[in-house]
């Protein structure tokens, strides 16, 4: 045991492993149930969001990506979980693992370790919850691009909530105004929604770089417009709850059909023997964007009268290759194929040879969360990953 201990110490010195840092959130604040008494409406919005599902136990795609990543890189499963927690679970009390932990894990000596305890913390299962965003004290924009999530911020002391109002008071917690909760909230979103990199340092998505504001902020679309309501239901003003302009906490994105519908404008016309399809993107970020391996599908249904005579399918997606040029998942990619997304506030034009016998064609555009390739590699079972969500559809008479 003594020799092993020395060996581990030597390894940890060699690899400069960081000591586990314990981040404390008092029991009174750690989970969203603690906020329900006064912010029930916001807790209910958030519970339906995918921020509430960012823990690996709640998202099949994320969980299977972790397992696949661990298998291919031979890094321990828990080591990978800690790595991904940087953005998916930033309240974790251990922020990195070193070679010493990897050796412990291989030898089966990791039980009861700091890392395993940190990952077993039940509070983490809430993922990106209230005390992730509202306990951010500072965002270090001066740090290099590659510092994201937990590495880009410092926390407020437990019990201090950063918020959008400069005149709020609460008997339950302290309150402090921050510009990244008010006028400058894009900065908060870019803590995690930017510079997502693979194991091989390939940046497969960067929303901050592609973002073209056009006067809109992330929260305008993903938390809805400001509307009259209450921030807290506690009766703090003449025996009544204080009226405020508030937003929803739904953070709806690509997992919701109502967000996907009409997110692109479709125009189609005939030019000689070609069917020209133009997709215009009014949104300030690319579509698809965010996670890699998302997909746009264009379906062409050729008709003669009401009879369908032929179907064509065009896929717009990005494919990822590992070091040996084999298909892989975004997080393991060394290279990627051309970006096929429709650029922010831009357009993409595609031409397809028409079917000669057809009198008309129905052109339909769909969105899919995971393309065939990555779904196959990870063996994703839930139908949400393969479902075709409608964006727009147009009928074109052919000459
Ligand atoms: C006992 C009631 C109560 C509980 C429980 C409570 N809050 Fe509050 N909270 C308030 C009140 C009152 C305000 C001020 C509302 C106002 O001024 O309109 C407030 C304001 C806030 C604000 C806005 C601060 C600002 O400056 O804009 C945030 C963020 C917040 N609370 C987060 C939380 C979180 C997270 C929890 C759970 C860990 C929580 N609160 C639990 C009563 C409560
Ligand atoms: C992903 C980050 C994020 C998470 C998670 C989050 N909030 Fe917020 N919250 C914000 C932002 C940003 C605003 C300011 C929105 C604006 O006014 O532009 C806000 C505003 C608020 C406000 C002021 C009233 C309002 O709705 O505008 C309260 C109170 C609040 N949040 C409580 C909570 C509680 C309770 C939770 C957990 C259920 C929570 N928040 C989770 C980002 C977050
Ligand atoms: C602490 C990191 C972090 C911060 C800060 C953060 N997000 Fe997220 N966000 C994530 C992660 C991780 C996911 C993916 C969760 C999953 O699908 O498992 C996500 C998912 C989303 C989605 C996709 C939801 C869907 O249905 O597809 C939207 C939209 C979103 N976030 C908007 C925002 C906005 C707006 C802000 C700023 C107010 C913000 N996020 C701040 C990490 C963060
Ligand atoms: C004008 C409205 C609008 C604004 C502003 C906006 N988005 Fe979106 N966003 C959308 C729509 C519509 C979708 C759904 C279509 C899609 O998934 O590509 C979406 C999708 C997303 C997704 C899921 C993407 C995917 O394909 O997985 C994320 C994450 C996201 N937005 C984050 C952000 C962040 C962060 C900002 C600010 C930097 C932002 N959005 C600003 C409209 C907007
Ligand atoms: C830089 C911050 C960051 C890190 C680190 C990170 N992610 Fe994410 N991840 C995000 C954000 C933001 C989203 C939401 C993007 C979207 O929905 O389009 C996301 C979404 C995902 C999704 C899609 C989930 C869904 O429901 O569609 C998967 C899978 C995923 N991440 C896997 C991983 C894995 C595996 C790791 C660790 C190897 C990891 N992520 C590390 C920020 C991060």
- Which regions contain 5 or more consecutive residues with pLDDT less than 50? 1-22
Please give the order of strands in the largest beta sheet. 12-11-16-17
Largest sheet: 4 strands, antiparallel
Strand fraction equals 15-25%
Associated small molecules: heme C
Radius of gyration: 24 Å
* Overall body shape: globular
Helical content class? 10-25%
Number of strands: 17
Helix/sheet category: alpha+beta
Number of helices: 12
Instruction: Return the domain count.
Output: 2
Tell me the span between the first and last alpha carbons: 82 Å
Question: Would you write up a description of this structure?
Answer:
With 399 residues, this protein is of the alpha+beta class. Helix 1 runs antiparallel to helix 5 and helix 3 crosses helix 4. It starts with a helix and ends with a strand. The chain folds into two domains: 245 residues, no CATH class; 141 residues, Immunoglobulins (Immunoglobulin-like), CATH 2.60.40.10. Strand 11 and strand 12 form a beta hairpin. The chain contains twelve helices and 17 strands. The strands form seven sheets. A four-stranded antiparallel sheet has the order 12-11-16-17, with no helix packed on it. It binds heme C (HEC) (5 copies). The site of one heme C has 24 residues, from helix 3 and helix 4. One heme C binds next to helix 2, helix 7, strand 3 and strand 4.
Write the SSE topology.
Elements: H1 2-14, H2 36-47, H3 60-73, H4 77-88, H5 99-106, H6 114-120, H7 130-133, E1 136-139, E2 153-155, E3 160-163, E4 174-177, H8 186-189, E5 196-197, E6 203-205, H9 207-210, H10 218-222, E7 227-230, E8 243-246, H11 257-260, E9 265-271, E10 274-280, E11 295-304, E12 307-317, E13 320-321, E14 335-336, E15 347-353, E16 360-368, H12 372-378, E17 389-397
